[in-house]
Amino acid sequence: MKTKYLMSMGTLSRKDNSLDFKNEKGHNYIPITEIREIYLMNEISLNTKLLSFLSQNNIIVHYFDYYGFYRGTFFPKEHYISGKLLLKQINAYENKGILIAKKIVLAISINIYNTLYHYYRHGNNEIYDYLNYLKDDCKNKIEKSKTINNLLAVEGEIWQLFYKNIKYIINQNIDFSRRVKRPPDNPMNAMISFGNSLLYTKTITQIYHTHLNQSISYLHELSKSRFSLSLDLSEAFKPIIVFKTIFDLINNKKINLKEHFNKKVNYCVLNEKGKEIFLINFEKRLDNKFDHKSLKRKISYNSAIKYDGYKLIKFLLEEKDFMFFNDKEKK
Amino acid sequence: MDINGTLINYYFHCKRQCWLHANRINLENEFELVDIGKAMHEIKFNNKKNSEIKIDNISIDKLTNDYVIEYKKSDADIEAAKWQLLFYLKVLKEKGIDRTGKLIFAEKNKQSKKTIVVKLDKENENELLNIMKNINELIKGDIPEVKLIKGCKKCAFYEYCFL
Q: Which PANTHER family does the entry mention (chain A) (predicted)?
């Protein structure tokens, strides 16, 4: 089951029991059974006949505008619904919300630590203090947090310090002093924004294939977004998926700061070629498989996102203690 | 909770699976086994007379003048399949339809026969009543603990149970 990215302008329609993407170059038939989700990355026409066909096959469509900003998701009707779990999800929001939220922030810190430790081992000694902070100070702060706001403050601190340390990790000279969103102001911010929104949509797709309700979240405010649980569950994967992709693109010179970005008057986005390079490497990382310790089989990072959803379900239904995805799950 | 054939089957196979299914937690199977089963049904039953009959909350693969036929991909869990079929026979009997059950396996791994004939009698009818009572109690209670059995690795709940 794959992800299909449509990068060029065209028309997507149903042709018998298959999909037909028509662009300048002609017809491109896509077997429906092979895909799980579609990304529309350009101006693409479609009709309701197509939408109901996609819905029948439980295929999710995420769409981005020409500049690579996430615009929305076409969500087929729910195929997994459990009233019992929904009640538990709501109940946990009132009673155990902080517990789950703590686990999310802890997972962020562990995964950043593991991502950066690799660089420390290879001689990037400047990040030593930050690594220590993640291991001790930050862990204490998470444990001691009594409210979601305390916790959000710790999370903010983790990321802020992380951004400050990025310059020690990358070998190209990128002016990256602070995180700027909507719109991003430099290539680094452009890649972080693009990567984060991709990961967010990937998580929406994975949650769709579980019984979890997308709107009930524990760390992020409920009102923040319709799919705020996706914001919650994608956090742990940001260091591993988004930032590892970015560091690889920069350090291995796969992306060129002059060639692959479009710098408008005061903001910066990936251009078409840049988006393509980013997507290929992002997908590769998600598809990467590793031996899972307790499952005793190879799983991809993409499935690991869904399994984090399963863990949450298990916690809600059975009160089984758990931890969101981290390196310990690898063999 | 209305008891259906799948629940009876799961009850024999794995209590935890039965509980999850009854509580509407059904997870997608990433293996092709489910697709194979579905495709098998489509090939066998599409547009054919007396097949895929839905009565109340049971769904019968095929009903002939003499038999109620249940098709299975393999004979991996004969006991579970047998009771599922007996349950169908019982539901039909209550509607005045008396039949004999026939299990047909596409693959035989455990035994040499491809078909097994199942008859509803006083004894197993009483046993069914007992089973249904037990299932009702099971699904109202706490979820059963994980127990590794043969077949776990092919189950849609495998990841959920063993994460």
A: CRISPR-ASSOCIATED ENDONUCLEASE CAS1
